[in-house]
Every structure is written in C-alpha cells, then in structure tokens.
Amino acid sequence: MTERALETNHDNTLVFLHGFLGSGEDWITIMKTFSESARCISVDLPGHGKSTLHGMKSATEEPCLSLEIVADILHKLIHHVTPAKVTLVGYSMGARIALYMALRFSSKIKGAVLISASPGLKDKLARKIRAAKDDSRARSVIAHGLQLFLSSWYAGELWKRPLWEDLPNCRVPLLIIHGEKDKKFKKIAEAMMNTICSGLGSKVEEVNDIHEVVEIPNCGHAAHLENPLPVIAALRQFISKL
C-alpha cells in the first residue's frame, strides 16, 4: 500500500482514504489546507494508484481482498506511522473502510469523517442483485484488459458484510457528510444516525454530541472535489472537538 505524507511536527494525524478508482492524490488540496496543523497522510488503497493488489502471488492468480484484509493493512500502517490515535477521512469506498476501522479498531481511531458513506446493503436479496450486476460489469471491463485490477474489486468480496448491525455500538465520533444533490446518500446518512440512536435509547442529545451529519450545498456524490471549502470547514470544526 503506497502512502504520501505532508509532514509536520504536530501530534495530530489525519489519514485520508480515497474512493473506488481514485488515488491518494485526490486529497492533496485538502491535505495542504491542514498540513500546518496536522500530519496528513493519504494512501493508495490496494489496486489503486501506485499500490499493487494485496495477496497476489503470480500474474495469473486472482487476488483475494476483503474489507477485513484492507483494514488490517491500514491498521498496521497507522501503528507504523504513529503511536497515537488518528482521525480517518474517507470518501465512498474509503468511507466504508473508515467506518469499519472505527468500529473494529476504536482504540486507535480518534474520529472518522465519512463522505458519501454507506454501511452496505441491508437486504440479502438486494446484495445478491448488486453482486450480479457487479459481476456483469467486471466481465465487461476484464474483456478490455483490466483483469487483475477489477477481478477482486468488482467481485463484491469487499462489500459482503454490511455494518448496519454494528452502528449502534459505535462510540468513535463520526462526521457523516453528503452532497445536497446526492439524495440517495442523504437518506443513507439519516438512516445511519437513526440506527446509531437506537443504540443509545432515548439519549438523542448524546448522539448529537458525538456524531454529526453535514450536508454540503451545490454538489453531488464527490462533495470533497465538487465543493471543497464547506467540506474543509466541516472537517476543521469536527477535528477541533476531538
């Protein structure tokens, strides 16, 4: 897994996780904004940017990836980078990974910023339909020569286990960001907050103190690229409270 960093002597560390088909370079603009107050690190997730697919032993072997494997790699990387807790900032696929890490590695995660995040599909039938569509897309792209890259990601292995049932137990502060025009992920963000509330009973005020949903105006799914200034402002406010 390839990483890039904007170094600083500050103890605060931000780790940025890109979306599918992206790379760590997608975060450079935002990283520069925070580089004077935090150590900013972005990674190329396996199969993206300059990173190879993890677990591939030969050129003809299909790599085996899962959410757990990717999270474990990142967890080891974070331990190598700093002994302190870090704040994760993830977009789409990266947000899914960040959420998983906030749930599993809470002792190492100070907070998680989830941009256009989804804990996965709740319904088993919907997951099967999605997997079938992904397999169809994969066959089409593989035919054009990207077999080693997409055989793992489009196989759906990374997304098999939804995280909805784990959300009520989340105590790592979450900032859930969605674009104003992204109606699908606005509904998902609201559903995530409602699910988290169910784990705290009637303590809605406690949820609002720990977790927050922010809508970014005049943008769709890629809010951090389409309208970065409000995203930066939301990030700055969230980080100041950690």
TrEMBL record:
Database matches in SUPFAM superfamilies: alpha/beta-Hydrolases (SSF53474)
* Pfam families tied to this protein: Abhydrolase_1
Segments forming a coiled coil = none
Q: Name one GO molecular function term.
A: lyase activity
Which key words are in the record? Lyase
Q: Which InterPro entries match?
A: AB_hydrolase_1, AB_hydrolase_fold
- Gene3D superfamilies for this protein: alpha/beta hydrolase (3.40.50.1820)
- Name all AB hydrolase-1 domain ranges: 13-147
Q: What start and end residues bound the annotated signal peptide? A: none
Against PANTHER family, the record matches this protein to: 2-SUCCINYL-5-ENOLPYRUVYL-6-HYDROXY-3-CYCLOHEXENE-1-CARBOXYLATE SYNTHASE (PTHR42916), PROTEIN PHYLLO, CHLOROPLASTIC (PTHR42916:SF1)
Q: What is this protein called?
A: Protein PHYLLO chloroplastic-like
Its source organism is: Trifolium medium
